[in-house]
Automatic annotation (TrEMBL):
Top-level lineage group: Bacteria
Gene3D superfamilies in UniProt: Periplasmic binding protein-like II, Winged helix-like DNA-binding domain superfamily/Winged helix DNA-binding domain
Keywords: DNA-binding, Transcription, Transcription regulation
HTH lysR-type domain ranges (all copies): 21-70
Entry's family note: Belongs to the LysR transcriptional regulatory family.
InterPro entries: LysR-type_TF_proteobact-type, LysR_HTH_N, LysR_subst-bd, WH-like_DNA-bd_sf, WH_DNA-bd_sf
Molecular function terms from GO: DNA binding; DNA-binding transcription factor activity
Pfam families found in the cross-reference section: HTH_1, LysR_substrate
Designated name of the protein: DNA-binding transcriptional LysR family regulator
Length: 305
């Protein structure tokens, strides 16, 4: 092991001069090799003499018409020309491979499940030279995710800027499966809701979105006393409603396809809007041209509905 370490250290010490030696041999002249290396001829000559003195062997015979190799010079050239040339070519290929640009999009779990994942393949196909990643959090905050370039989250709907645009406003209605409504025909008024199992999206702390408590209070109904079924995933909330386990709050803009397909039905016509909206934004300081292209693509795609 010590011999290997000594060999590595020795090669590292002389690697630059060994490469210059190969350049001198290839050109056959110190002046031409010095020009390619960006050195003066005296400096190139000095480096070659330093290499010879360090190795304790003459490598070059200097003449008026250029240089020629001594027997030791031939041996060194034969030993190094192949490996070092291959290493230089491999490094050149590595250096010239274009770096894949990446854009990281942050959104909540509900938006990812119902809106982003269905279009994600189209987004990647639109930018084949770009690595696009999707990061999810229940409460997405780009301040807690330093690698994020774009975000989609709930925010005040009236805070539109060139770098933040509203996608759709928070509009909520009560939804259930057709089978559940058929089995519970007495559901017709907000006051009837607490008598049913309420499937809710739970979170730690105060939820920024509309909850069963806020929806019922807005309707003048006391929320206490209702049986609750809680999940931390909105996908689970909707799947449970489709399975007939109770009533759920349906966010229009997320579950429209479920309603259109008949998997879910609006249990009553009352819809509630809030002052919030899903917004698409660029993180300050990360608004590069590639990020902007993805921003504009998403903006146009979600504007289509």
């Amino acid at each position: 092991m010590a011999d290997i370490e000594n060999s590595n250290a020795s090669f590292g010490r002389f690697s630059a001069d060994l490469w210059l030696f190969l350049m001198v041999v290839r050109h056959g002249q110190l002046s031409s090799a010095a020009s390619e290396a960006g050195l003066s001829q005296p400096r190139m000559s000095q480096r070659m003499r330093f290499l010879e003195e360090s190795l304790g062997r003459p490598l070059l015979e200097r003449g008026r018409r250029g240089i020629s190799l001594t027997p030791d010079g031939h041996a060194l050239h034969a030993a190094l020309s192949g490996p070092l040339s291959e290493a230089a070519q491999a490094f050149g290929r590595f250096r010239d491979v274009p770096t894949r640009r990446g854009v990281v999009i942050l959104c909540d779990l509900a938006f990812a499940s119902f809106r982003m994942l269905p279009i994600f393949s189209s987004l990647c196909e639109a930018f084949p030279q770009m690595g696009i990643s999707l990061m999810t959090m229940q409460l997405p905050d780009p301040r807690n995710a330093p690698d994020v370039d774009l975000y989609i989250r709930m925010a005040a709907h009236d805070r539109a800027t060139p770098n933040q645009v509203p996608l759709f406003r928070e509009r909520v209605s009560i939804v259930a499966s057709p089978g559940y409504l058929a089995a519970h025909p007495g559901l017709g008024r907000p006051a009837d809701v607490p008598g049913h199992t309420l499937i809710e999206l739970a979170t730690v702390g105060a939820a920024p979105w509309m909850t069963w408590d806020s929806w019922l209070r807005a309707q003048g109904v006391t929320p206490e006393g209702a049986e609750r079924l809680s999940f931390t995933s909105y996908d689970h909330v909707i799947r449970s409603a489709e399975a007939g386990l109770g009533l759920a709050l349906g966010w229009h803009g997320l579950i429209d396809e479920r309603i259109e397909s008949g998997a879910l039905v609006e249990a009553m016509p009352d819809q509630r809007d809030s002052d919030l909206a899903y917004v698409l934004g660029q993180v300050p300081g990360r608004a590069g041209s590639e990020t902007r292209k993805v921003f504009e693509w998403l903006k146009a795609r979600f504007a289509e509905g």
